Amino acid sequence: MRFALIDEAFSFYNQYARQAGFSARLNNSKKNKITNEVVWKQFVCFKEGYTDEIRSSKKLIHDQPIRERARGGVRTGCKSKLTIGKEQTGSNWIISIFIENHNHQLSTPSKVHLLRSHRSVSAAKKTLTQQFAEANVPTYQQMRLLEIEYGGAEHVGCTERDIRNFEKEQRDEQKGFDAETLIEFFESEKEKNSDFFFSYETDSEGRFCRCFWADHDGCMVYDIISFQSSSISKPRVLSHNQKMDYISCSCMKFEFEGIPCRHMLAFFRINQVFKLPEKYILKRWTRDAKVGGHLLGQKNVDDNPEKCLMSRHSKLSYKAAMVIDNASLTDEGTDHADDLPPKLTLI
After folding, report:
1. Are 94 and 102 contacting, i.e. CB atoms less than 8 angstroms apart?
2. Which parts of the chain span the membrane according to its record (predicted)?
């Protein structure tokens, strides 16, 4: 099998990894010493190598280990890999080594979409999420809409966390420029309408603190006044059932959210109780939260025609979503996808 580009070879291996139930990643490469051109590339299973070796190699300049979050071991020294090399007489890439066997358990079809190499926010999804954000659609609702459009969370190609990370990157790019952008917008509105009013304040370091703006209608209808509001805190009632040794608060925070409120904690502090009783620590907040849960990936599939239909639909939805994402990026791709053989729609 031949590939024109390294990216095509990795895409092929990654698709194979998705069907097999593991995640792929780039590994080593070799360059031509004369032309400095890559002539050899290797793709491996994400569990290749060992975590201890990776952590020990991460050192700072002053030879101190990098502080990072403690995680469980992920890599198991898996030997599964795909190696490609460049042809000596051409520009294509050919497969030289392929090892299929793994030394670990593979993921189930319902969970494989959560692995790293199978999660990415494509350019089409980035544009779509930006449009959702302009319409003030929350991120969790954006994910629900994508799940409906693509036929399930396993076909979206990314998770809600991936979308939130993309939104954070967008906000980070605007840091230091968002205040200037707002002032430029106010100035442009002032040029359009001389009755438009705006004012802003900065601190001692020149950083944007606060602003006020009013359009023509607002200036005519409303007067700007200053006022001081007073707030009255609502009293809370704490009940202690001595027979059952149980306390409850009228704010109902523990009943609704499963978290003891500050009034309950104050009661414990007054009564010299410095360790929270286990009855007020719900299982959902412990390490055993998932123990005994039902795994959807272990559900047996019977001969129900409706389940068989959904299984076939899920298998095709992922491939169709990839075609749509890639084709919608350019006019040529859209025209090419639109000109697919009519028999595909008449099956």
Report:
1. no
2. none
